[in-house]
């Protein structure tokens, strides 16, 4: 033990610890934030592909340097300024955008975590609710059958896999189009995640609930079935009667009005307002965000 301490002392005495003051800490924080923002920017632009390309070229140059391939190194040194100009010209739109964003308030809130203000958190927007209600009642009017599963907390990937990938922003026109008779996507269920239609023609588990009315066929049984195995909300438009039903927690609510459907969807939307003023919360010694229903 004594030996270890003396060895450590000997080595640690050679290490010169620089004095760190508050400006150094701020500098480190600023650099970290800028590096992080730069990496995020790279990831979501074409620059990501460029970065991968540059890494491959750098690896190639390293090999050329290690094995002293002087001709290659000479060519690269002559071309380097041209390459930099080429990169600037190719990525001019992205560079221009980032400079423009610097002048906007949005980037400051991304850089400074102590953002002041409130943020609305919701599973889907009011617009999506409007589109859904409109589509369901429009389809009901002309007796077009539909089955729409709205994903909540439980992921529905295993049912999504049984269908055809759509991945499109939900609109009433798109829904009506999907469930149009004799079209390739009309059979089975549509699964929604957030504001998007993830997949169509999905196969859902059928409920074996004996209490369900004998008049109801497999579309309604499938709607109740998925609500028994997940926390999803499912809207069923009857092809026979044009009525709208909603399946939730293994129960079927039949013939709902548009106001009732809207109410159910607003509940599923789970809209909360999150107070983003973390600095104020920290100063108050509170760690949890305050959430309040917007109603
Ligand atoms: N397991 C399932 N998963 C998803 N969709 C299903 C499933 N079973 C049936 N369907 C859909 O339901 C349709 C058949 O509906 P059916 O007429 O049997 O139901 P229903 O409950 O009587 O409804 P409707 O009032 O619309 O006639 C199928 O064409 C298919 O689109």
TrEMBL record:
Cell membrane recorded as keyword: yes
Span of domain DAC: 92-258
Keywords for this protein: ATP-binding, Cell membrane, Membrane, Nucleotide-binding, Nucleotidyltransferase, Transferase, Transmembrane, Transmembrane helix
Molecular functions per Gene Ontology: diadenylate cyclase activity
Reactions it catalyzes: 2 ATP = 3',3'-c-di-AMP + 2 diphosphate
Enzyme Commission number(s): 2.7.7.85
Tagged with keyword ATP-binding: yes
InterPro entries: C-di-AMP_synthase, CdaA, CdaA_N, DisA, DNA_integrity_DisA_N_sf, DNA_integrity_scan_DisA_N
Ranges that cross the membrane: 20-42, 49-67
Enzyme class: transferase
Pfam families hit by this protein: CdaA_N, DAC
Record function comment: Catalyzes the condensation of 2 ATP molecules into cyclic di-AMP (c-di-AMP), a second messenger used to regulate differing processes in different bacteria.
Family: Belongs to the adenylate cyclase family. DacA/CdaA subfamily.
Family matches, as NCBIfam families: diadenylate cyclase CdaA
Binding partners and assembly: Probably a homodimer.
HAMAP family, A to Z: DacA (MF_01499)
Name the record gives this protein: Diadenylate cyclase
Organism this protein belongs to: Blautia caecimuris
Gene: dacA
């Amino acid at each position: 033990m004594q030996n270890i301490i003396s060895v450590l002392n000997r080595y640690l005495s050679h290490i010169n610890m620089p004095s760190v003051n508050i400006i150094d800490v701020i500098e480190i924080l600023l650099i970290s934030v800028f590096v992080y923002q730069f990496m995020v920017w790279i990831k979501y632009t074409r620059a990501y592909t460029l970065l991968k390309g540059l890494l491959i070229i750098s690896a190639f140059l390293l090999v050329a340097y290690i094995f002293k391939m002087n001709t290659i190194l000479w060519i690269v040194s002559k071309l380097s300024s041209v390459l930099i100009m080429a990169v600037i010209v190719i990525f001019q739109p992205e560079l221009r955008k980032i400079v423009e964003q610097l002048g906007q308030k949005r980037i400051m809130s991304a850089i400074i975590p102590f953002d002041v203000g409130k943020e609305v958190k919701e599973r889907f927007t009011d617009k999506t609710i409007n589109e859904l209600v409109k589509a369901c009642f429009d389809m009901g009017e002309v007796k077009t059958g539909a089955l729409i599963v709205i994903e909540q907390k439980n992921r529905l990937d295993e049912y999504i896999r049984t269908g055809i990938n759509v991945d499109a922003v939900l609109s009433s026109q798109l829904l009506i189009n999907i469930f149009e008779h004799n079209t390739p996507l009309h059979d089975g269920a549509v699964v929604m995640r957030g504001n998007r239609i993830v997949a169509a023609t999905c196969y859902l588990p059928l409920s074996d609930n004996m209490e369900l009315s004998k008049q109801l066929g497999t579309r309604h049984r499938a709607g109740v079935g998925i609500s028994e195995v997940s926390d999803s909300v499912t809207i069923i438009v009857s092809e026979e009667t044009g009525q709208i039903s909603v399946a939730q927690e293994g129960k079927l609510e039949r013939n709902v009005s548009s106001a009732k459907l809207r109410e159910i969807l607003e509940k599923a939307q789970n809209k909360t307002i999150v107070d983003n003023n973390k600095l104020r919360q920290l100063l108050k010694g509170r760690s949890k965000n305050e959430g309040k229903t917007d109603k």
